[in-house]
Amino acid sequence: MKKKDIYTLALLIVLTLTTAIFSTHLNHLKYVTVIILGLSAIKFMLVAFQFMELKKANPFWKSIIVIYLILFVTIVSVSL
Amino acid sequence: MKTTKIDYKNILYPPGGILLWILITMELITFGVALIVMVINSKDDPQLFHESRLHLNTTFGAINTIFLLTSGFFMATTVHQYHQNNYKKAGFYLNLTMIGGLLFLIIKSVEYYMKIQSGHGMGANSFFMYYWLLTGFHVIHVIVGLVILLFLKNSLKKEKTETEDIEASAAFWHMCDLIWLILFPTLYLII
Fold first, then answer.
1. Set of chain B residues whose Cβ sits within 8 Å of the Cβ of A3
2. pLDDT for position B9
3. Contact B35 A24 (CB under 8 A)
4. Is B131 inside any structural domain?
5. Does B86 touch chain A (CB under 8 A)?
6. CATH no. for residue B185?
């Protein structure tokens, strides 16, 4: 087991619980939607770059994932 | 077993293979566009979408996220052990990966059963139509992923696995994680 993967999993679990807590207990906050989407985007990047080893890939594939996430989070945040 | 060195920096050889990455990109775009359409649609009746969303069990969603993420971690460990030529350990972690996927499906089945019992089927309203279609298609991906992992397990046992096979299977499994990581917040947390 790679130590970096273990830390990544721990961080992913913490972020998942944080987003769930934000949604159920802090949903009165003004920017809660953007915070939840932002934290989810971080989780997405961690899985793609660490678990899928995209960090080793050509910058083209890395940029596709980053551009996709930026577009998705922006469009959903603006549309809500 | 055949462990080959792949030049991942080459644009044609991302980890998992170019064909799988084209598939991953297309799948992410499809689910992403469907979620955006749902969010835009929710503007027609925000109250209905919000109240319907509150009928979803956030705890189930969060537990399922943790199951899939842990399963993804074991998949990454399987690939790592394979590269270290520890094939027995790779097989062991592959089993844990599949258990994670099965637990996800069990929780999802319980959730679906509860939704049907409470009258929140696909025809209940627009929100639940999106909920059933999006999570249903995701579940199909998880089932297909489990079948692929089962074949991989079999080839690992017979020591016939090649680097490309294990990396492509892993990439498909992680794709299920990625899709869920955009479905969970949009459906369960923010609408």
1. none
2. 80
3. no
4. yes
5. no
6. 1.20.120.80
Interface test with B, best of A34, A71, A76, A77 (most B CBs within 10 A): A76
Give the model confidence (pLDDT) of A10-59 as tens digits. 999 999 999 999 888 877 777 888 999 999 999 999 999 999 999 988 99
Chain A within 8 Å of B77 (Cβ-Cβ)?
yes
Residue at B59 is within a domain: no
Distance CA B74, CA B65 (A): 14
CB contact under 8 A, A79 and B39: yes
Provide the domain limits for residue B119: 69-190
Give yes or no for a contact between A57 and B8, defined as CB atoms under 8 angstroms apart: yes
Interchain CB distance below 8 Å, A72 and B72: no
In a domain? residue B110: yes
Could you give the number of structural domains in chain B? Answer: 1
Query: Residue range B125-131: average pLDDT?
Result: 94
Joined tokens for residue B169: 């299977």
- Angstrom CA distances, B163 to A51, B1, B32, B101, B152, stand at 16, 8, 30, 22, 11
User: Does residue B122 lie within any of the structural domains?
Assistant: yes
